[in-house]
Design goal:
The chain is an all-beta fold and 368 residues long. Among the domains are: 112 residues, Immunoglobulin-like (Sandwich); 93 residues, Immunoglobulins (Immunoglobulin-like). A hairpin with an 8-residue loop joins strand 19 and strand 20. It is rod-shaped. The protein starts with a strand and ends with a strand.
Length: 368
């Protein structure tokens, strides 16, 4: 650098001089890749780190370093531009401030659900016009092909396996899966089912007799070590019911207290019970029947039983239904009574005529 003096006549020819030292202080290396742990596409979350400039590292203390502060931006290009303002200033365009850190610090934390807003770069600026740049990878780790096979045969109850296909991308950032019942595709009013499922598992058992309530969807979220995603993958649920219809039983055993005949129905496996009422109180199992069995069935009612209902209950590979069909048993009884002897033979030990009255009755099983 040279400095000349000038008079009204002429500028001097022998200037004073100073040797310039052009300092370049730049974040030269990003210490490690910015790992986006917010698994929703267009949202960011995680830790950004960098290696401090050499002159800052060599300074004995922060007061001697030429760098005083770091500013981290999202940018729409490697070198965000400037434009000439109306007042002659040149403000930056195409960038958005993420945060700042004092000298001596080499990272900042980006909170989850930070919107990317279309920016594709992270830039580090220290009151200079040429930043260090890192291309952002926005993680998108959502499951697909969510399905549900209902095995609880009661209407309004759920039970069975929710399954899914693991994320096609960024699966290495997934720690676990969370499954909920929801009122819609976005997880409104959600209710969690069991505990989180670890990475590597692609299904969750919904316990039998889980109330459906007002829910219409299963929703599956991925979870990283930072946060659970906010946009799930949904599946419209269908509630399975398999109630036997048109129950019919005709007792063909005419002894009081005994039953025999065909119990028939229209439609896995059926379990047949005797019970005190239509809701299964004090039930007593009579038989376990395959779903494709329509052979005649015969049952012997225990002599001391007072159970007037037959209940064939559907059974899946998960559980029996808890709200089955029921049939009031009518026990056919054919009894002989009013036996009368009219002895019109005057010969000793002779018998002339015996009169018998036979009465057929139908009683509710268990009644006297």
């Amino acid at each position: 650098m040279t400095i000349y003096t000038r008079s009204y006549l002429v500028e001097q020819t022998t200037p004073a001089a100073f040797a310039l030292s052009d300092t370049r202080s730049i974040v030269s290396t990003i210490a490690r890749e910015f790992l986006d742990l917010d698994l929703d596409f267009t949202d960011l979350g995680g830790n950004i780190s960098w290696v401090e400039p050499l002159d800052t590292q060599e300074a004995r203390d922060a007061s001697r370093a030429q760098v005083t502060e770091y500013f981290v931006y999202l940018g729409d290009s490697p070198e965000p531009g400037k434009f000439l303002g109306q007042n002659g200033s040149s403000p930056w365009s195409g960038r958005s401030l993420l945060g700042s850190a004092p000298v001596g610090t080499n990272d900042i934390f980006v909170t989850s659900e930070t919107p990317r807003n279309g920016y594709g770069y992270a830039t580090w600026i220290r009151k200079q016009t040429t930043p260090a740049v890192h291309v952002i990878h926005d993680a998108d780790a959502s499951v697909s092909n969510v399905g549900f096979v209902g095995k609880d045969l009661d209407l309004e109850d759920l039970g069975g396996y929710v399954s899914w296909t693991q994320p096609a991308s960024d699966a290495d950032r997934v720690l676990a899966y969370s499954v909920y019942l929801s009122e819609d595709d976005m997880g409104t009013g959600r209710s969690k089912i069991e505990q989180d499922v670890p990475l590597g598992t692609d299904q969750l058992l919904v316990p039998a007799d889980t109330p459906r309530g007002i829910f219409t969807r299963f929703v599956v979220y991925t979870r990283s070590i930072l946060v659970e995603q906010t946009t799930p993958t949904a599946h419209l649920l269908f509630d399975t019911s398999a109630l036997p219809r048109n129950l019919d039983f005709l007792d063909q055993d005419v002894d009081r207290g005994d039953l025999g005949g065909n119990l028939t129905w229209q439609v896995t496996e059926y379990v047949v019970y005797l019970s005190e009422n239509a809701y299964g109180k004090d039930r007593l199992m009579l038989a376990n029947v395959s779903w494709d069995t329509y052979e005649p069935l015969g049952f012997i009612l225990p002599p001391t039983s007072a159970l007037p209902f037959l209940r064939p209950e559907d059974k899946s590979s998960l559980a029996e239904m808890t709200t089955p069909a029921a049939l009031l048993i009518l026990d056919s009884v054919a009894e002989v009574d009013n036996i009368t002897l009219f002895d019109r033979d005057w010969i000793k030990f002779g018998v002339s005529k015996i009169s018998i009255a036979c009465q057929v009755k139908t009683l509710v099983a268990g009644s006297k």
